[in-house]
Design goal:
- The complex is a heterodimer.
- In chain A, 0% of the residues lie in helices and 51% in strands.
- Chain A is an all-beta fold.
- In chain A, the strands form two sheets. In chain A, strands 1, 3, 4, 8, 9 and 10 form a six-stranded mixed sheet that branches. A four-stranded antiparallel sheet of chain A has the order 2-7-6-5, with no helix packed on it.
- In chain A, a hairpin with a 6-residue loop joins β8 (86-93) and β9.
- Chain B has strands spanning 4-7, 10-13, 19-25, 31-38, 42-51, 54-57, 64-66, 76-78, 87-94, 102-103, 107-111.
- Chain B is globular and about 35 Å long.
- The chains are: A mainly beta, B mainly beta.
- Chain A binds chain B through residues 1-7, 32, 34, 36, 41-46, 49, 89, 96-100, 102-105, and chain B through 31, 37-45, 48, 50, 56, 58, 90, 92, 94, 96-106.
Chain lengths: 112, 112
């Protein structure tokens, strides 16, 4: 199993800086990847997704990069704000029925 | 736009009792899912459903029963609750097999 909560890796950034959250995925056959944000006491919230035929996708203040060669996914958040403080999960889909495998999560702490 | 509604949000029950967690979605999504989130294990899939009357096991189905008589509802039943089933339960849905999965706000279950 993977660790969350007390054993969660934490990224601390200053407000206004850019944040980069990394994720290593496990299955080279995965064809779809999603980043979720989870605030305390709430459900995971969709941020951005990317399919395996792409290596970059941009949203509002967020960019996801996919490196299939090393099975690595990253989420970049521009001009990080206090409201971005949360746990961020990457998820990969390796099956045709939309089963997602979640990563351990990274806690992002934004300091004023 | 109600989205996904879970009930109850918080529940304390005794070992051996039957508990049902309700999930209702207003998007007419075909796929629905139940996940549990625990310290040390992240998010794990319990059961999923591709359409009404079609359900299948996920990663950790033992001790749980689901049904899907209507597209919009996907209740999860713990037939005889055990302390190991103390967890946060998330219902989720997606339009189809290759689409984004959206989560509800979670149901906090404590088995004493």
């Amino acid at each position: 199993g993977e660790s969350v909560g007390l054993h969660l890796p934490t990224l601390s950034v200053q407000e206004g800086d850019n944040s980069i959250i990394n994720c290593a995925y496990s299955n080279s056959a995965s064809d779809y990847f999603i980043w979720y944000k989870q605030e305390s006491g709430k459900g995971p919230q969709f941020i951005i997704d990317i399919r395996s035929n792409m290596d970059k996708r941009q949203g509002q203040r967020v960019t996801v990069l996919l490196n299939k060669t090393v099975k690595h996914l990253s989420l970049q958040i521009a001009a990080t704000q206090p409201g971005d403080s949360a746990v961020y999960f990457c998820a990969e889909r390796a099956g045709g029925y939309n089963k997602l495998i979640f990563g351990a999560g990274t806690r992002l702490a934004v300091h004023p | 736009d109600a989205g996904i509604t879970q009930s109850p949000r918080y529940k304390i029950t005794e070992t051996g009792r039957q508990v049902t967690l309700m999930c209702h979605q207003t998007w007419s999504h075909s796929y629905m899912f139940w996940y549990r989130q625990d310290l040390g294990h992240g998010l794990r899939l319990i059961y999923y459903s591709a359409a009404a009357d079609i359900t299948d096991k996920g990663e950790v189905p033992d001790g749980y029963v689901v049904s899907r008589s209507k597209t919009e509802n996907f209740p999860l039943t713990l037939e005889s609750a055990t302390r190991s089933q103390t967890s946060v339960y998330f219902c989720a849905s997606s339009v189809g097999a290759g689409n984004t999965i959206y989560f509800g706000e979670g149901s906090w279950l404590t088995v004493v």
